[in-house]
Amino acid sequence: MSSTSLPRFRIQTWRMVTLYVAGALVFALLAFRLFNLQIFEGVNWLIRAEDNFTREISIPALRGIIYDRNGMVLARNIASYNVVITPAYLPDDAVDIQRIYRELSGIIDVPVNHGTVDDAKLVAACVPGPGIAQLVELGDSLAPYSPVKIKCDVDGESARIIRERAVAWPGVDIEIEPIRDYPTGSLTANVIGFLGPIPAARVEQYEALGFKAGRDKVGYAGVEASMQDILAGQNGRRVIEVDVAGKELRNLEPPIPPVPGDNIRLTLDTRLQLAAEGALLGEIESWNAYFGRIRISSGVVIAMNPKTGEILAMVSYPTYENNRLARFIPAYYYQQLSEDPRHPLLNNAISSEYPPGSVFKLSTATGALNEGVVTIDQTIYAPGQLILTEKFSPNDPGRERPFVDWIFDQNPAGFGQIDFLHCIAYSSNVCFYKLGGGYKDEIPQGLGILRLREYARALGYDEPSGIELPGEADGLIPSPKWKRINQGENWSTGDTYIASVGQGYVLATPLQVLMSGATIANDGKLMQPTILREVINDEGHVVRFFQPAMKWDITTTQLIQNYECEGGYCSEAEGKKTVSPFVVQSVQEGMRLAVTDPRGTLNKVFSGFPIAVAGKTGTAEYCDDVALSQNRCQYGQWPTHSWTLAYAPYDDPEIIVMAFCYNGGEGASVAGPIVAKVVEAYFEIKAIDIAEGVGGGG
Amino acid sequence: MLRGLSWRHFDFWLLGAVVLAIAFGVAMIDSAVAGNVEIADYPSRQAIFAGIGLVVIFGIAAIDYNYWSVLYRPIYGVMMLLLFFLFLSARAVFGAARWFRVGVIFVQPTELAKIVVILILARYFEQTQDEPRDLRWIISSLLWTMGLAIWILLQPNLSNVIVIMVIWISMLWLNGLQIKHLLTFGVSGLILLVVGFPFLQDYQRQRVITFLFPDPTARHGATYNVRQALIAIGSGGLLGKGYGHGSQVQLRFLKVRHTDFIFSAISEEFGLIGALLVIAVLVFIIARCMRAARMARDTSGAMIAFGVGVLIFFQGAVNIGVNLNLIPVSGLPLPFISYGGSGLLSLMLGIGLVESVIMRHKALEF
User: Cβ separation of B247 and A52 shorter than 8 Å?
Assistant: First the structure.
């Protein structure tokens, strides 16, 4: 070898070293970064890795079924069939996919191709429009292992065919979705209510309870809303591992199965409900036909067992069809309902307040007799009209004003000399003006508004009853203080006179009117009105038995505030008192006399009725915005609501019925027959039950 | 030429490290398949390539590397033609094509081109070792380099052009590049970068932008991939989740986990210890190349060994840097470990050349 092969050029060492240092720095940087990520931030990244593959699935719980007292289904869950395609399970071959689309399209009438994927992004699930291919393509790009809804709510026959053929159509399946169904529909809609999506404002609250917004529905009205907690049950929960495509791999935690909601049995008797609705609608329709226009626009019938407080029927007309709201709430239908001036979405039985009119005289009568304003034997002169002095303060000289009795148009002489019982039986306004406000030497000291208020409240007025239904109104029994705050005016003597007959500022819900009657009928015991009889768990065991609850007994519970009265003005005194049983019994007798006396207000209605009935009618003048807009609030010509309240049998009542017709006119002739029909129906149903050995209504 | 061939100086340490890295890579690719049927046969393919590569190493080592210098014209010509046709076919298809399809195998001439550039430059610096280190000396070497690199740039494949330019610059440096020239190049390179940015391909610009200003809401694409890589690496911790048990890998949240992001897969399943071991093996391989460069009997040998070392270093550092989200996504594989037949064979060819250099380092042996 020669020296020429020796390198003539030598690499300078410092140049090599520079490169080594550069390389070492680079690797040191990488190692440092690696150390940082894996050691210092490791835990955070581990959490994110777990987030990646962890998915929580909420398993829906089945909602409880609602029965009536006899076990008839009022609300249940039925299967609704959705056709779904899971993009990831479709065959690989595009030709096979197209064949599946075409064949499926033939059955469900959804086009294979329609619009673009971007169009499909704009429509919610179940809304028709996009073609099958577009829906699947969109779903594939989002979550290939999540089923895409192609068509919702196909009929059972199509669902069966598709499920059979799905063997040859990988990826196609039928998804069963539970939908609420109301077999009695509009008959019970006001009591049962309907479901809707979880409102945006309450999403957090419901999600904390394990609900899933966008899927789970919650009660919006009626029992569905008030007993949401009982009916809803508890959703189950699974924590699963998924891969990047969303494919479920395994359970990460033991799954928590859903707990189905409890079933409930209501106190309603659907048969009586049907009879009540028939009676109300029949009466309304015949009167409307008679007048040739819509005269009575709404009405209420409630039937209750006064001894237990069980509501047997509760009809509020107009109503709505809750089955139309079951799958989703159609905007046009909901708008139509909410814009209707008669408020079909409101349960008028508990949510609307009306002047009670003469049915309120039960409060005045009870108070007057109990406070010694009048004695049972005293006769009161009741002419057709009474000239009374309206005074706004004790020293006000006052202004004379006629107060008219309802009999005045038929007989200006009025009822003449009548006793306390006949005051009730004939529903004499003049008599009750005197009892409520006092009249000269005949009734030197009237009951007065403050004491009247105490008795009205004792009979259930002026506060929500506490029935298990949402949206209950308070009603209103005014007081001088209330008037000063809300009307900016002193309480006048005239206010007391008209409040004594349930007019003026007095407002009540139909249920409160019923409760006042029930308290008298039940010897002073006010039972808590209830719609819920039993709660039954999903295995059929009763978990909550029916237990009648008494709110109070006016003959034993110290409810009535003592007042000392002087010259028509009362001031609060020490202590509280009860109502004497004799007083309650006397009012009962007055109500019975309304049926038995030939001139009694309910005499014609219940003539020849085999069972002893007692009751009270009401014809309440009103001037609300509807009447105002029709220019009907003319002096002495105000439109009237029709009320009637009756219970039977008189000596041992088991049914009390209340009917109300908005703008119905005279109580006895419009609401009266409705009550009679419902009472009659009740005893017919009872007879059938006894004949069949069912053992009565409860 | 094989007469008197002595395997006495064959670097078995280097070979051992390479075989270790490749074997580990095959195992990691096997784990990275994670039920994806499309890449199910990649581990065995990679193993077959590795087998062929071993034959190549011994074959190339047996041949004196200076023979290639003699044949530099045909080698350079053929390589240029290959790249030119690739460029043409890339235009015929749309966008970028980086491989020729030969049966079921995709051949990437670019990978081979990097080795050819090393050979050509090694010959050039051998030839010019006595010439002054002036601009002419620099420009000529640049022209030799660009003769091949231009077609790669036109593919367009910027990352590999950068790899080639790094090899060129570091060889210049080692051969006595003057500091003033280096500064001139540095400054003009920087200007070129700023001015040239708007002329980059859309996807390249996008990568740089995504790197600098990541979109935290992105569900897919480069940001998503890099974030999943970070989750994979970070969640690996010190000891990793165990082979075949990395959730990011096995549930396929980590994308391109058998090639570009295999380092993330390793870091997840073997943790910091595993990742550092992989880096250590690479460093060892690079160190053995540098040892060969220092001991080479002549400049061309030194430059070949050095060039291969720089190639492995730069590709490795860039790949790991991408995985660690230190630099924008580049698409450069992790040497010896990422899946890819052409890349692996080219690198093993390079190792064969290094072995050839080290085997012949004792010029005065009798």
Answer: yes
- pLDDT of amino acid B114: 94
Across B357-366, average pLDDT: 70
In CATH, the number for domain A54-72+183-242+249-265 is 3.90.1310.10
Instruction: Check residue A435 and give its pLDDT.
Output: 93
A34 with B276: Cβ contact below 8 A? yes
ipTM confidence: 0.91
pLDDT of residue A551: 94
Contact criterion met (CB < 8 Å) for A7 and B299: yes
| Average pLDDT for B194-210 | 75
> Does the predicted model carry a pTM greater than 0.80?
no
Confidence tier at B366 by pLDDT (50, 70, 90): very low
CATH topology of domain A270-692: Beta-lactamase (3.40.710)
Chain B neighbors of A49, CB-CB under 8 A = 231-232, 234-235, 247-248, 253
Q: CA-CA distance, A116 to A120, in Å (whole number)? A: 7
A residues 565-604 near B, CB within 8 Å? none
Among B247, B275, B302, select the one facing A49 at the smallest CB separation.
B247
Chain A, residues 191-250, CB within 8 A of chain B, namely: 241-245, 249
Instruction: Answer yes or no: do A49 and B320 touch at CB < 8 A.
Output: no
CB contact under 8 A, B176 and A15: yes
In this structure, are residues A574 and A333 in contact, taking their beta carbons and an 8 Å threshold?
A: no
Strands A66-67 and A263-266, by their bridges, are parallel
Nearest CA-CA distance, residue A44 and chain B, Å: 8
* Complete DSSP assignment for A132-190: HHHHHHHHHHH-TTSPEEEEEEE-HHHHHHHHHHGGGSTTEEEEEEEEEE-TTGGGTHH
Mean pLDDT of chain B: 87
Inform me whether the C-beta atom of residue A32 falls under 8 Å from chain B C-beta atoms. no
Residue the block writes with tokens 């690198």: B347
- Domains of chain A: which residue ranges? 54-72+183-242+249-265, 80-178, 270-692
For A624-668, write each residue's pLDDT tens digit. 888 888 888 887 788 999 999 999 999 999 999 999 999 998 888
Q: Which of residues 40-59 of A touch B (CB under 8 A)?
A: 41-42, 44-46, 48-50, 52-53
Express each pLDDT in A40-94 by its tens digit: 998 999 999 999 899 888 888 999 999 999 999 999 999 889 999 988 888 888 8
Nearest one of A183, A526, A199, A443 to A323, comparing CA atoms: A183
Is A270-692 in the same CATH topology as A54-72+183-242+249-265? no
Residues 6+ apart with CB under 8 A from B18: B57, B285, B336, B348, B351
> b or e along A638-662 (b: 16 or more beta carbons within 10 Å of the residue's beta carbon)?
ebbbbbbbbbbebeebbbbbbbbbb
- Asked if B129's CB is within 8 angstroms of A9's CB, the reply is yes
What number of CA atoms fall less than 13 Å from residue A176's CA on the CB side? 9
Interacting residues of A363 by C-beta distance below 8 A, sequence separation 6+: A452, A455, A456, A459, A461, A502, A516
- pLDDT band at residue A391 using 50, 70 and 90 as cut-offs: confident
Instruction: Name the least confident of A43-47, A144-148, B122-126.
Output: A144-148
